[in-house]
Design brief:
- This protein is mainly alpha-helical and 79 residues long.
- The protein folds into 2 domains: 35 residues; 38 residues.
- The longest helix is centred in the last third of the chain and has 34 residues.
- It is flat.
Length: 79
């Protein structure tokens, strides 16, 4: 009992993930509502814009990883 280590539960990181998901949902839903109601855009057009932006974000993440990994990989070995 005396030598047992405390296990970290990860609750703070889980909470931050939930908060970020809720915030992104709020932004996307409000932006969708504003674009369809105020700007009079079709819902399919708004969906296509969001789809294109998600695909572009995924591609840019991969390209950024290929750029950053060779620069910092020797330092990650020290961690």
């Amino acid at each position: 009992m005396g030598n047992a280590k405390k296990e970290k539960t990860g609750i703070p990181s889980y909470t931050l993930g939930v908060v970020s998901n809720v915030m992104s949902y709020i932004v996307v839903s409000n932006l969708t509502y504003c674009l369809t109601q105020s700007a009079a855009m079709a819902a399919g057009t708004v969906g296509a814009i969001f789809l294109f932006s998600r695909l572009l974000d995924g591609i840019s993440d991969i390209i950024g990883g290929f750029i950053i990994y060779p620069l910092f990989s020797r330092y990650w070995e020290l961690l």
